[in-house]
């Protein structure tokens, strides 16, 4: 009985054409084919998109001081209501794109007086292979994203002028500040 | 099980990388507006001369009054302000009084007999522009005789209700 039982055990390897290690390698390849390759493709595409993703760079800030020298006609008069920056106060660059895009803006107030209204307008077309349009009229910045200007391909040194209105003696002495967020989106 | 893990890894990587890619398309600048305290007052009209030279028989000399020559204007962007008046002449021979007339941007106080102590002239001045006519009244008694006083009158926009 022992011989009979031991017989098949000895010949089993000879009957098996594909040993277990070879079978595991096949499963691995299937997993690689089904998941790892798409994973690598996905990650590669995403990284490429990251490298090639449209980007916007905004350079410049505005610090405005209002004092007695801003009175319209000295004592007894109110403050000048409106102030402007230089026409090139803010520079905007749009890079890493080969298609059309739109730039929108919104404001986030840190401390802001309700009567103060802040606006932007584009004063130059900038330079680059693409085109640019819109945004040359004053746009009041609010806390909601609004389209500022549109264009295509790369544009750099797009000049933006800032404006502030609503200033009066009713505005209490304080430091008011906010952040203007520019968002570029390919369209 | 392994398939599920791989799928989750793929989704996680792609989602995470997408968030990174989306974050790159914004930039910002700041806007800062610093409003400084403004408290300005100015007199227009120049110097004024009051002459007492009439009287009714049996009465003290008539007052000399001028309310058309000088005006005062002010601007403040602060709350709780007032305007005071004072003279630099410590011991005048004759009385000199001043009253704010046709006041805007504040409330006239009672007529002020000028002294070297600052006295309320206009109160309730707050975040406003304003102005008034300055009515000066010079008084003398017969017993004071003749002479002249020269005052430098100072109006100050200062803290106060």
Radius of gyration of chain B: 33 Å
Strand content of chain B: 35-45%
Outline type of chain A: elongated
Order of helices and strands of chain A: HHEEEEEEEEEEE
The most extensive interface, with participating residues per chain, is:
A-B, 59 and 42 residues
* Mean pLDDT level of chain A: 84
The overall average pLDDT of chain B, rounded, is 90
As an assembly, this protein is heterodimer
The Rg value of chain A, from CA coordinates, equals 33 Å
Low-confidence stretches of chain A: 1-15
Helix proportion of residues of chain A, in percent? 25-40%
Number of helices of chain A: 2
Quick one: how many beta strands of chain B? 11
Give the overall shape of chain B: rod-shaped
Give a short account of the largest sheet of chain A. Answer: 6 strands, antiparallel
Number of helices of chain B: 1
- Helix/strand/pairing class of chain B, anyone? mainly beta
Any chance you could write out the topology, listing elements then pairs?
The complex is a heterodimer of chains A (187) and B (161).
Chain A: H1 2-15, H2 20-52, E1 55-59, E2 62-66, E3 83-84, E4 90-95, E5 100-111, E6 117-122, E7 132-133, E8 139-140, E9 146-152, E10 155-165, E11 174-186
Antiparallel strand pairs in A: 1-4, 3-10, 4-10, 5-9, 5-11, 6-8, 6-10, 7-9
Chain B: H1 2-23, E1 26-35, E2 39-44, E3 64-66, E4 71-76, E5 81-87, E6 95-104, E7 107-108, E8 112-113, E9 119-125, E10 128-139, E11 153-159
How would you summarize this macromolecular structure in one to three sentences?
The complex is a heterodimer of chains A (187) and B (161). Chain A contains two helices and eleven strands; from the N terminus they run ααβββββββββββ.
What does this molecule look like?
The complex is a heterodimer of chains A (187) and B (161). Chain A has 187 residues and is an alpha+beta fold. In chain A, 25% of the residues lie in helices and 38% in strands. Chain A is built from 2 helices and 11 strands, in the order ααβββββββββββ. Chain A has helices at residues 2-15, 20-52; strands at 55-59, 62-66, 83-84, 90-95, 100-111, 117-122, 132-133, 139-140, 146-152, 155-165, 174-186. In chain A, the strands form 2 sheets. In chain A, strands 1, 3, 4, 6, 8 and 10 form a 6-stranded antiparallel sheet that branches. In chain A, strands 7-9-5-11 form a 4-stranded antiparallel sheet, with no helix packed on it. The longest helix of chain A has 33 residues, at 20-52. Chain A is elongated and about 85 Å long. Mean pLDDT of chain A is 84; it is low at 1-15. Chain B has 161 residues and is mainly beta. Chain B contains 1 helix and 11 strands. Chain B has one helix at 2-23, and strands at residues 26-35, 39-44, 64-66, 71-76, 81-87, 95-104, 107-108, 112-113, 119-125, 128-139, 153-159. In chain B, strands 2, 3, 4, 6, 8 and 10 form a 6-stranded antiparallel sheet that branches. A 4-stranded antiparallel sheet of chain B has the order 7-9-5-11, with no helix packed on it. Chain B is rod-shaped.
